[in-house]
Amino acid sequence: MMNMYQQEQYMKQLDTIAVPGLEIEQAILEGQHRAEKEKRIVRLQKLKKGLIGITATACLILALLVGIRVSPVFASTLSQIPVVSELVALIAGNKDKGLQDIVDNEYYEVIDQTVTENGLSLTLKGVIADESGMIIYYSVTAEEPEVLKGLSVNRVRIYKDEKEFGDGYGSSFFYREGDVAIEDEIDVHSNEKLDYSSKQFAFNVTFSDEHETVITIPFELKQPIAITKSHSIAKEVVVNGQKIWLDELNISPLRAELKLHADKNNSMRLLAVRSLELIDEMGEQWGAINNGITATGTFDEKGYSLYIQSNYFRDPKQLTLRLGEIEALPRGEDYIEVDFEQQKVLYQPSLIEGDISVTNDSIIYIGTVEIGELTQGNMFASGVDAKGEMVYRGFGTMHSGEEYYTHDQFELEGFTNPIRLPIVSYPNFLPDSIEVEIPLTE
Question: What pTM was computed for the model?
Answer without folding.
Answer: 0.72
